Amino acid sequence: MKETSLITGVNGHLGNNLLRNLLSKEIKVKGTVRNMEDKAPFEGLDFIPIYADLMDKKTLLTVLEGVDILYQVAAVFKLWTKNSEKDIYEANMLATRNIMEAAAEKKVKKVVYVSSIAAMGRKKLPMTPDTYNNETENIYYRSKIDSEKLAWEIAKKHNIEMVSVCPSAMIGENCTKLTPSHNMLRMVLNKEIFADSQFFINWVNVKDVAEGCYLASINGKNGERYGLGTSKAIGLTEIIHYAQELFPEQKIKTPFKMPKWLLNLSAGFFELQSRFNGKEPMLQKNQVRMYFKVHQDMDISKSEFDLAYQPTNPEIAIKNALIFLNKNKDIV
Fold it and tell me: Is pTM beyond 0.85 here?
């Protein structure tokens, strides 16, 4: 009998690309969503999602029945809310506890736990999956670090075979809602970037991450973490140059490089503004501290050797994502 795989958050950007990847390999796959009315991610697919809520362990026990491989993809991907501690940190921690304990009860054979580049050590560059980030100020980062550690704790307690993967900023096709990673590219296309923050982001084609997750399920070594990004980070000015090359008619201007002191001043203003309008600040001080002039290059040698992971050149990935977003202006 064929093994059965389960993907949580199968309507999300990575979840949907992983679904398409597994279906193309004729793998028996189930996928969970919270909103059964959201049918757009599954148009053209011979697939019907199943309802489950990571906040409700009972629903997870039901969908995990008969599952051999669990891809734990679903998570809160937000950098700020009015109540970030509850909406981001506590939500990601509870989701991890529920799904891992349910997987243990249902005797799932293997878990591919999707963590994040946010949880990867960065005291030395390039970043490596062999150490953890020690960031505590940024609530999203803290949630990803602590929730992955919790997953490992539960996996070891119940002898669950598990590998974790740490994707970087995912961009590309099969996206029905604007992600934080895509939002920066959309701002470039909309000519909303007036200054270069001098942040150098590790961009990766979401299809490569989906394939990396699958490779982790068959080649990943129990107890190991794998970085799923690219070797070279790309700065905002470079991205704008790509957009200028692709869409010269849009007359996108090259922004000036904003110094760190002015970035901090701007971030302080945005954070203060958010207290009054309840909207996510455009920039936070902790982001300036973490990202300014830091090239988030990633050491992917372990992923290449163990998993046979081969990511797309980031320049090509970014250009393809810009083309995708330019064609799909209705994604919000």
Answer: yes
